[in-house]
């Protein structure tokens, strides 16, 4: 399975991004739990989940920053 590209995630709304972030955090928790209890875990799933989580958090931060900058411009005028 290939890593997710950020261009695939840019179409998501802010609410969908928030939901996916929560899902991935839960998935990482479950993977760590499975690893700790010696259940079969595919190690690459950690990498994929962390990678996608980082992309989503970056996207969220960019949108939040863009919202602040447009609000600052409109208040200055």
From TrEMBL:
Coiled-coil residues: 7-34
Pfam families: Ribosomal_L29 (PF00831)
Source species: Petrachloros mirabilis ULC683
GO molecular function, one term: structural constituent of ribosome
Keywords: Coiled coil, Ribonucleoprotein, Ribosomal protein
GO biological processes: translation
Keyword Ribosomal protein: yes
Family membership noted in the UniProt record: Belongs to the universal ribosomal protein uL29 family.
GO cellular component terms listed in the entry, alphabetical order: cytosolic large ribosomal subunit
Protein name: Large ribosomal subunit protein uL29
SUPFAM superfamilies: Ribosomal protein L29 (L29p)
